[in-house]
Design a protein that fits this description.
Helices cover 63% and strands 15% of the residues. With 356 residues, the chain is an alpha+beta fold. This is Polysaccharide chain length determinant N-terminal domain-containing protein.
Length: 356
Amino acid sequence: MSKDLQQPKQSEEVDLGQLFKLIGNAFERLFKFIGSIFYKLFLAFVWFVFFIKKHIIKFVVAGVLGIALGVFLEKNSEPTYKSYVTIKQNYETGENLYNSISYYNDLVQQKDYATLKNVLGFTGSEASSILSFSIESVISENEKLQAFDKYIKTLDSVAASKIEYETFLKNNKDYTHTYQQITIKALVRSNFKSVFDNIVGNLETNPFFVSEQKKDLSELISKEIALKEALAQSDSLKNTYKKVLEKDLKNNGSEIGITFEGNTEKNKTKEFDLYLNDLELRRELVEIERQKADKERIVEIISSKQDSGTVDNRIEFLSLELSPKVFYVILIILITMIVLMTIDFLKFLERFKDKI
């Protein structure tokens, strides 16, 4: 029984040689795999170079045909005219504005010109000539960096360290930027000033923004009244101090100060301190005047090009705006390349026809 109960203890030993060998084999396979990828990419590059060399004349002919087609269509197709305005948002109207532009585009696509005329005040046949509405933010890369820096400063150090610039740009919506550009593309050269005015007017009559404007202006006016009262009291206090100082000079210049009792201690106020306080109050009044001027308009048109519009026949391709000649050169060369690659691929499959 005792022999059955006694079980020898077995120690597990790790063979370091086997472990290093497994690790070495894993790295060897990894490097071979990476090497095979680069080798295949190199073969693909070599094949592509010889493919271009083999069909270079065909690509040149395709490019010439693309230029000819682009020139022909540019001269014979109806010109497209573009008018635009740049606006400044004094309130957070961006989301509402973008939704409105999307709605106008839906009306154009549905050819609901009657509704479009009523909403935006088109006259005559202008509505039916509209091709599209578009809007985009007007902001430079430097301004984006400044916005990112300003946003980071509002966060604590731990949260700020986790926010990257690319993440900020990804989550930062275009409609949040102050300056926006609205564009109208049409088939006729026309003055769209009244249309742009109506787009802005629809925002300025929005009940929510009107209410916010009233509250902001009321708050600014109250601040202005309070600051003017404080400035008047400060002027009165300076006059009193001046009289005391003149009286003091007559009494052999003995030092006298005016003191004001605060919550917990007494502070001696000098004439220069009163002067600095006046400067600060006047600075705040100037800032309030500027804020009132900004809040008087919900949206402002700051620049425009809508008197007659400009010719714009550019074609959008892969988020790029290209001239017709460049667009058709790229298009025909791509089509030629796809056709030739398809023919070569079918010839390659023909080799395996007899093996099936």
